[in-house]
Amino acid sequence: MTDSDPKTSDADRGDLPSAGDAPSGWFSVGRVASETGISAETLRVWERRYGRPVATRLPSGHRRYTGDQVVWLRRVAEAVALGTRASVAVRASESELDELLTRDEPEVDEAWVEQSLRYVLALDSVGLARTLLDGRDDLDVVTWLRLRVGMVVREVGSRWAAGELDIRHEHLATQCVSHVLRREADRFTPDPTAPLLLLTTLSGEQHALGLWMVELVALQSGWRTASIGTDTPADQIAKAAIDLGARAVGVSVSLSTGGVETHKRLGELRGLLTDGIDLVVGGEGARSGRRVPRDVHVIPGLRDASRWFAARS
C-alpha cells in the first residue's frame, strides 16, 4: 500500500475504533484515507511540507494516527473542499479552522447578474471582465466560479437558447470569460514538485470553459497544470501525459458531445494511459447517466473537484 504498511486487513480494521471513539485507539494509514478521503501519499507530503499530521511509528515500523488526528483531518479536508488552500488549512489553529468552516457563502446578487448581461448585450468585453473580477479577492476560487463565472455562463446560455441573445453575444461572453479565467490562473505560482494535471478535451469537443474552471480549482489545491487545448485524439493525449509526467489527465465533456462514442473514447484513453496516471472527467456530458469506463473518475461539480485534488495534492 505505502511505505512499510501492508494492506490493511479486515481484522486490522476491526481492531480500530471509529472516529467517534476519539481519542482512544489507533488508525492505520489505510483507515485514515478511508475515513477522511485524504490519500496516504498526501498525508506523507503534508507531514513533510507542513509538519502535520505526525504519525506514530509502532515497533513494527507501521504508521498509526490517533482518533483526534482523524477528526482534525476531516475538518481540514472539508476546509479544503470549501476552497481553502491545503497549506493554509493544515497550518490553521482550531479556532482558525472553525472560522474557515463557518464562513457564509455569499448569496447570488441578481442585480450583479443583470449588469453582467447588459455588458454582454452591449458587446462590452471590458465591462464584463471588470464585473466578473469585482470582489474577486473576497471570494475563494470555488465560490467565485460558482456564483460569478458560473452564473454568467448559465444565464448567457439560457438566454441564447431562448432567443434573447444572438451568437455574437454568446461568443463574446465565452471569449471574455476564458480570458479572465486564464488571467486568474497566471496569478498562481505552484510548487515545481507538485503533481501535474494535463487539461484537454477529446476529439470533436471544442468547449473549453470547463477546463479553465477546473484548472483554477486544481491550482488552488496545490497542483501544477498544463494544457494541450481542445479536440485532441486519445493517443496524443496519452503521449503528452507520459511525456510531461502528468499525475492526472482532466477531460471536459459538454452535453453536445456526451454519449456512447465519447464513453468509448474515454475507455480507449484510459487504456493508453499508464497505471500511475488518473483520468478525471467532468462537465454536463460526463453526468449524462451513462456508465463510464472502469478506472475513470467522474467529478460532478467544482466542490467535488476541489475535494478530489486536495486529497491527492
Automatic annotation (TrEMBL):
Which GO molecular function annotations are given, in alphabetical order? cobalamin binding; DNA binding; metal ion binding
Q: Which CDD domains match?
A: B12-binding_like
Q: Where is this region: Disordered?
A: 1-22
Superkingdom per UniProt: Bacteria
Residue ranges occupied by any HTH merR-type domain in the UniProt entry:
26-95
Q: Where is the B12-binding domain?
A: 194-313
Q: Mind listing the GO biological process terms from this record?
A: regulation of DNA-templated transcription
Q: Which SMART domains match?
A: HTH_MERR
- Comp. bias regions, Basic and acidic residues: 1-15
Residue ranges spanning the membrane: these are: none
Q: What is this protein called?
A: B12 binding domain protein
Q: Which organism is it from?
A: Rohdeia mirabilis
